[in-house]
TrEMBL record:
Organism: Glareola pratincola (Collared pratincole)
Protein known as: SET1B methyltransferase
Record gene name: Setd1b_0
SUPFAM superfamilies cross-referenced by the UniProt entry: SET domain
GO cellular component, one term: Set1C/COMPASS complex
Taxonomic lineage from the root: Eukaryota, Metazoa, Chordata, Craniata, Vertebrata
PROSITE patterns: POST_SET, SET
Length: 235
């Protein structure tokens, strides 16, 4: 049962020659310190000496005022559609600080944790894209399960976003007859998305609201927004 281990052979360049022809089949093995030093010295020398035609320039960090000025100039150079796409990219990488907690309007609500200027993207309404037939089936099923609140948002005639069981904080936004935000459908890479825009300046700890714009129906849903020009019903 004793086998003689093959002798370690080295190639002309100093690297170990693999007897089996495959490095993976021979497992791990130690490398001589001399070989390690050769590799480390070569890698350090390559890292310390950049190419002659390469110039390394360091820029000072941008201030908040400079960043806002860049955003303003970028928005002025682009059209309305490109501006929406630019803002949506900013929304993905620079999300607004929001929190959900108990609301005086209804149950839970969404509140701002930082000042939000007018005409800014606040949050995207995320959910599952479904058809009208599936939406009707789910609405009946949700009623049977005891889910009274509706988190379905219509995008167009054929598409509805269902955020009941798969959504984000946007579904907690309450309705108001005098809202500080509004919903807008934008197209990003041939896909329609619903984004909540700020209608006016929003202060810290102020609740985010928008008009649901439910269709007029015989069975009325009472409105609890409490604003001065409250219509009394959602539909």
């Amino acid at each position: 049962t004793s086998f003689s281990t093959p002798k370690k052979k080295k190639r002309d360049d100093g690297m170990r020659e693999h007897v089996t022809g495959c490095a993976r089949s021979e497992g791990y093995y130690k490398i001589d310190k001399k070989d390690k030093l050769k590799y480390l010295n070569n890698s350090r020398a390559f890292a310390e000496e950049p190419p002659a035609d390469t110039q390394v320039r360091t820029h000072p960090p941008l201030t908040a005022r400079a960043r806002s000025e860049q955003r303003r100039l970028l928005s002025s150079f682009t059209g309305s559609c490109d501006s929406d796409l630019l803002k949506f990219n900013q929304l993905k990488f620079r999300k607004k600080k929001l929190k959900f907690c108990k609301s005086h309007i209804h149950d839970w609500g969404l509140f701002a944790m930082e000042p939000i200027a007018a005409d800014e993207m606040v949050i995207e309404y995320v959910g599952q894209n479904i058809r009208q037939v599936i939406a009707d089936m789910r609405e009946k099923r949700y009623e049977d399960e005891g889910i009274g609140s509706s988190y379905m948002f219509r995008v167009d005639h054929d598409t509805i976003i269902d955020a009941t069981k798969c959504g984000n904080f946007a579904r907690f936004i309450n309705h108001s007859c005098n809202p500080n935000c509004y919903a807008k459908v934008i197209t990003v890479e041939s896909q329609k998305k619903i984004v909540i825009y700020s209608k006016q300046h929003i202060n810290v700890n102020e609740e985010i609201t928008y008009d649901y714009k439910f269709p007029i129906e015989d069975v009325k849903i009472p409105c609890l927004c409490g604003s001065e020009n409250c219509r009394g019903t959602l539909n």
